[in-house]
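Appendix B. Raw example, untouched.
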Amino acid sequence: MFTVHDSGTAIFLCFLTMLGWGSWANTQKLAGKEKWPFELFYWDYCVGVAVTGLLFFVTLGKAYLGSPSTAAEWTAVASGALFNLANVLLVAAIDAAGMAVAFPVGIGLALVIGTGVSYLQTPKGNAVYLIGGVVFVLIAMSVSSVAHSRLKTAGVTGKNLGLIFSIAAGLLMGFFYPQLMRSMWQIPAGESAGWTFARPDPSLLSPYGALLFFGLGVLVSSLPINWWFMRSRGSSFADVTKARAGIHLPGILGGAIWMAALSFNVIASRVAGPAVSYALGQGATLIAALWGVFVWHEFKDAPAGTNRLLAVMLAAYAVGLILIGMATL
């Protein structure tokens, strides 16, 4: 079973997480150019997530489960379901408002919640840096909302709905990672200082086993969650089966990229710790915003002065992420 033993490798894997989590949504943009609705794209995405979790389990994980309890398995499945509900809302937000809005608001909010929960579970690091980083992320989120409000488009209602979806996604997504961590590592009785990695509980899952059950949770929970979106938007399963094979590739690739990034993050967390891993991985917010602004030109029709707001947003995010990283090191 592949494990990480040094901080350099752990930080590198967290950097790969940041790139993967910040870039996977480009596959949704590509699918959109093919007129493939997001609710149909999402089926392909979920398949990519589940298959990639399985691949990591049978390769780097050597298909080893150990003897985990049913509770640990259900905890990982529930984490996948929680993430899935949040992520389908994020995908809907990207479809309505673009990456440059959905990620800074949705994932920024998830970063604030996830970092806070991780710190409560692992109260280590400089609290001043942590609070300062969260404040800068909140500033970036606020500036992103202001920049979004300046867009003069015909689909104003859709854009506003995208902002609402982003907020809902962020509120939910901040909790899936701590839930996943609880399925893997032991918090010994009497040691409220936080997670411990030196003495894993054999009744809990290995990182690769947790990824396997997480992917299963994503795939199974997509049946009721995405079915609702399909019904509300007038799509059907016949649309999925009748589509040409090539149109499914962007979604499968997007799911594979996201799940590979999570896998790198989980592997790194054994050395770096959950708070550091999560905070560095959520640098994805900055990567996605850069994609949305400079590659997809999502603000090209915005009025004069919007570019200054975007520059402030990106700078605030960069400072916030640096401070959060410093606080948890």
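End of appendix B.
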